[in-house]
Prior knowledge:
The complex is a heterodimer.
Chain A: E1 6-15, E2 23-30, E3 35-40, H1 46-54, H2 56-59, E4 63-71, E5 74-75, H3 81-85, E6 88-91, H4 95-98, H5 104-114, H6 119-132, H7 148-160, E7 166-170, H8 178-194, E8 198-202, H9 206-211, E9 216-221, E10 224-229, H10 231-236, H11 239-242, H12 249-256, H13 278-288, E11 300-310, E12 316-326, E13 330-334, H14 341-349, E14 356-361, E15 364-365, H15 371-374, E16 378-381, H16 394-404, H17 409-422, H18 438-450, E17 456-460, H19 468-484, E18 488-492, H20 496-502, E19 505-510, E20 513-518, H21 520-523, H22 527-532, H23 539-546, H24 552-567
Helix pairs in contact in A: 5-6, 5-7, 7-8, 16-17, 16-18, 17-18, 23-24
Chain B: H1 15-18, H2 21-37, H3 41-57, H4 62-86, H5 90-95, E1 100-102, E2 111-112, H6 113-139, H7 142-151, H8 156-186, H9 196-227, H10 246-269
Antiparallel strand pairs in B: 1-2
Helix pairs in contact in B: 2-6, 2-7, 2-10, 3-6, 4-6, 7-8, 8-9
Keywords (chain A): ATP-binding, Cell membrane, Membrane, Nucleotide-binding, Repeat, Translocase, Transport
Membrane topology (chain A): Peripheral membrane protein
Function (chain A): Probably part of an ABC transporter complex. Responsible for energy coupling to the transport system.
Amino acid sequence: MTEPIISFKNFSFQYESQSEKTLDQINLNIFPGEKVMIAGASGSGKSTLGRCINGLIPQAYPGEMSGECLINGKPLNNSSIFDLSFDVGTVLQDPDSQFVGLTVAEDIAFSLENDQLPQVKMHEVTKKWSKKLDLTDLAQHSPQELSGGQKQRVAMAGVLIDESKILLFDEPLASLDPASGAASVKLIDQLAQKQSLTVIIIEHRIEEVLKGGIDRLVIMRNGKIVANDSPQKILKQSLLEKLGLREPLYLSALKRAGINLVECQNIDQVSRITEPQINQKLFEWNEHAKLSKKVKKGSTLLAINALSFGYTKEHPIIKDLSLEIKKGEMISLVGRNGAGKSTLSNLITGFLSPVSGSIKFKGQDLLNMSVKERAQYIGYILQDPNQMISKTMIYDEVASGLLLRGFLEDEIKQRVENILRICGLYEMRHWPISALSFGQKKRVTIASMLVLKPEMLILDEPTAGQDLKHYTEIMTFLEKLQQKNNLTIILITHDMHLMLEYTQRTIVLDHGKVLLDAEPAKVLTNDEIIKRAYLARTSLFDLAERYQLPSATDFVAKFIQAEREDRA
Amino acid sequence: MNSQFLIGYNDKDTFLHRLSGSTKLIGFIAFSIIGMVTYDTRFLIGILVFSLVLFKISQINIKEVSLILKLIIVFAALNLLMVYVFAPGYGMTIYGTQHMIWRNPENYFNLSWEELFYIFNLFLKYTFAVPLALIFLITTNPSEFAASLNKIGIPYKTSYAVEIALRYIPNVQRDYRTISLAQQARGYEISKKAKFWPRVIGNAQIVLPLIFTSLDRIEVISQAMELRRFGRDKKRTWYMEKNFKKSDYLSLIVIFIIVLVGVMLFGVNGGRFWNPFK
């Protein structure tokens, strides 16, 4: 039997700054050539496990270790990051923040520079890897100019160039659009086979990674490994759902249709899954489920007419765009990077001024108003709450908008406390913001906008990088705001789940124009739109198509409706 | 990449662009030192003409650098005025003669040919270095900066800090803009509409989030660098380093000769000053 390339034996780790163990009695063997996915909620210890594999622990994150951990035969406790970097190549979460070179070629060559490779040899090797990852034409570009998928390829080239046998990915999909994410998963799979690598992927987005084919799924919870088996076995037992993780959508759909997953073959691939009854049961369920009538539409809140914008005449970013948004809608705004999503929201909130066209809010012309004035009608919430928060205490942060608008102290107090209650932050009102979790911070930023009594919120990637629990927490909160306070919400997102599950309408932007404005189920079952807007097909669509259900769109819509009814 | 910097690299193909960054850096530093030390007007005029010729060869567009030139002119003029105001008789002390243009040496404010000549020398010192600095900055690929600094003996970790700073300018700019917009929506006026103090306070609100965001970035990037073995060895090689060619060696010889002339003039003049008044 072959020796494991990575082996943890009764391994525990406690960060210096923490009072409890983050990893508790870990036993795990990973064998050469295996593709392993490590999943788990935030704080489950999966990132810490990753840091042990690449040696950031204990060097960059000091703490107390016990038990044994061997990485390619080297004991962790007396190997440096540098020693391990020859065995383990690490691709961090956000490629943008880990580029060091001013150009793509320099970034790829970075570790060779540190190894003092002679320049001629370095140019040769860099060229070889640029070619392998299809980056040759981009070599002289600045990494920041590239698309999400290209950036990730640069980051991969930069570690593959070491020819280390173990490749570790820390949430590789978090900052990618769905199409680039799917492409990445495929590329990782190909590379692993061609270079005979051992691959470890730490990721929330289980369904996407499974699609690339995984040998083993390791699930962590509270610092312990709670499942460690082939994806087939784990999926059959519905362990993901039981452990509070997101199950692939097609499996949820099959369960809804009354199929027993234990009986299924090839359960990890929607294109190959088989069970004698699937066909019949899906048809029955589809027949039986009825789509409810459309909800009545509210009055027009925001009307955009023939809007155009561009920094130069030759390259318009928004082209003659018209759009109407009704009161009380929850809308997803999707499209690939650079399609004009952020530009559009900046035009609405007044950070940019259009070249031509009009934006009206309840009939009033928004273009005559300043950013400050518009914020009373439309609140804009950035992806990263740390970029919005400028005070140290929760109460002050939420009150600051009112203070600056010259409200009296009594009224401020009353309004802030009211909003804090709505947002579930009232008990923490005197807390320092630094003590909050990401989701709580997000709520603080939402509260500080809501206090101005806007009728509409625009949120940029509200759930990016969140696990299912925090994702659900944020989204149910927003859903409650929409339903109880009749707030109109626009979500800018790359998350196809979010779009399907929570929004009633999807606006697809492409090249500054509305490519499609329809229900989410219609968008995600339209292959042409999916391709042009860099979206990804939902596995529900694959399922419906494979079993030739009468209308894939209706099937997806019915499933989502059933899920929503369960949630309500 | 040009728009990222106040004065950016321009990618042309001239003799100076082809020189290695280290040669240009050595030339700039050597000329600056000898030019700062000497007060030989003939020598200073010589290197000023030389640097203007180089500037011409480099094909740098005056428009690209007009802002920085204006700043330098204002600063230099102010400085020269102050030199006069604080010691109007200093020129006479140096040269030991008194050729008066206006009033007597007994008055605090007076003007002599000696003072004028002294200030003229200072003026030359300020001017000759400017084209050289611009040449170094504009004809050297930013990717080569770090390599050039390292080559002339600065530790590579320090040199790399320069490259990382250049690399992060666009990120910090983008963060600044995003945060600024978020604060404006809150109600801080930062635009030109607002009065001075509200604008200052508004801008101060950006600093805290900007610092936190930047600190996060620093942590990530330093880990990413360590994971790729930055700092393991005492030395490193550079992808963008230009090897010395014939033209580099020739240039270094020319630089050496010019500096040597400057040093020899100390002997001829019997000190740093060339005195036409004797």
